[in-house]
Design a protein that fits this description.
This protein is mainly beta. It contains two helices and seven strands; from the N terminus they run E-E-E-H-E-E-E-H-E. The termini are far apart.
Length: 131
């Protein structure tokens, strides 16, 4: 079985930027032509994320993925599902459901990046204008 890994940046596919996603693809801070990417046509894809919250990042990832081709199937795996969905997104695989309030956030730390493996539930910082 051949398994390929693709780091998929979603920020150009969200509403918060002025980028046009079909103009270019960015992988690991390198601009690539579509012909330089792995072929996802008719492949089974597992999209993996650390924390599923509103579903907007997942939606952006799906949009980005679909611009690379037409996979046979896309499944979603998340380490933590904290609820509060704003879009009809449901993961196929969930490590842990952690119900949260709007004033909380889930932080996932991984040994390879943060020198420890843990999941933290912390109070969200209050931004000016938030009540």
């Amino acid at each position: 079985m051949d398994i390929s890994k693709l780091n998929l940046p979603c920020s150009p596919y969200t509403n918060s930027t002025g980028f046009t996603p079909l103009m270019y693809k960015i992988i690991n801070n390198t601009t690539l032509l579509e012909t330089d990417l792995i072929n996802i046509d008719e492949k089974n894809i597992v999209l993996i994320d650390d924390v599923l919250y509103t579903g907007r990042t997942t939606r952006a990832a799906l949009d980005a993925l679909m611009s690379f081709g037409r996979p046979a199937q896309i499944q979603l795996a998340v380490l933590v599902d904290r609820g509060h969905r704003e879009l009809p997104i449901k993961p196929d695989y969930v490590g842990k459901n952690i119900p949260t309030s709007i004033g909380e956030e889930v932080q996932v730390k991984m040994k390879e990046i943060d020198d420890e493996d843990c999941v933290l539930l912390v109070e969200s910082p209050v931004l000016e204008g938030d009540w």
